[in-house]
Specification:
By secondary structure, the chain is an alpha+beta fold. It has six helices and ten strands. It has a six-stranded antiparallel β-sheet with strand order 3-2-1-6-5-4. Strands 7-8 form a two-stranded antiparallel sheet. The chain has a two-stranded antiparallel sheet with strand order 9-10.
Length: 229
């Protein structure tokens, strides 16, 4: 049997499992509640020989666990949210040092994957909140991708430039600038990419813009660049 568990104050949730039909159990009956309190892999070669677990309902009754090895899912020093563990219905020899390292490494991989999912979800949430605010902003808000093509265009920008979003999204940013202003804009963008610490940059610049109809005006552009993983 193999389990990926999350542990809360009262319950243990089996988020992934093989060889067992349970989906949750009381924390007081769970081996995992002991594992998350440890800094290392917890191995119980024979549960009947361990006073902590000899009378556990999952040892005395189905699924009759006799062997347990679990690694904590540690997200910060002293903070574990669950476990990655293997179980058997027969006693086993203690894990070797190599086997303990493998189990610990697999648990670390799980934590890395969970953290990536959390970051993606947080980024998506932040983007959704930004777009909701930007859509109703009285200021022109334009977003572009790493290739310099426009991917967002709010109503205020339409009022200033005359182009509707469906006409302009996908076009290069430079479509908003007259020919003689484009080299300066390209230099500004290149400098932003070169000197942005950690892929982040805040900055202002003035450029001549070309709305529709073609009546030039000078606009203060306030840019914010973010690296996207």
């Amino acid at each position: 049997m193999a389990l990926l568990t999350f542990v809360d104050a009262d319950r243990v949730w089996l988020k992934a499992r093989s060889g067992i039909d349970l989906t949750e159990l009381d924390r007081g009956d769970a081996f995992c509640a002991h594992t998350i309190m440890a800094d290392d892999v917890l191995v119980i070669p024979d549960t009947l020989g361990d006073a902590r677990f000899a009378d556990n309902p999952f040892v005395c009754g189905p699924p009759n666990v006799r062997f347990y090895a679990g690694a904590p899912l540690t997200v910060a020093p002293g903070s574990a949210i669950g476990t990655l563990c293997i179980l058997d219905v027969a006693p086993r020899a203690p894990l070797s040092d190599h086997e303990r390292r493998v189990l610990a490494d697999l648990a670390s991989m799980v934590v890395d994957r969970l953290e990536k999912r959390r970051l993606v979800a947080a980024e998506q949430d932040a983007t959704a909140r930004f777009l909701k605010i930007a859509a109703t902003s009285p200021d022109a808000v334009i977003c572009s991708n790493g290739e310099g093509r426009i991917i967002f265009w709010n109503d205020a920008t339409t009022r200033i430039f005359g182009h509707r979003a469906e006409q302009i999204v996908g076009e290069p940013q430079t479509v908003l600038l007259p020919e003689d202003a484009r080299p300066g804009f390209a230099k500004w963008m290149a400098k932003a990419r070169q000197y942005a610490p950690d892929g982040r940059l805040e900055g202002n610049a003035e450029f001549v813009c070309l709305p529709m109809p073609a009546e030039r005006f000078t606009a203060l552009m306030r840019g914010s660049m973010r690296a996207v993983a």
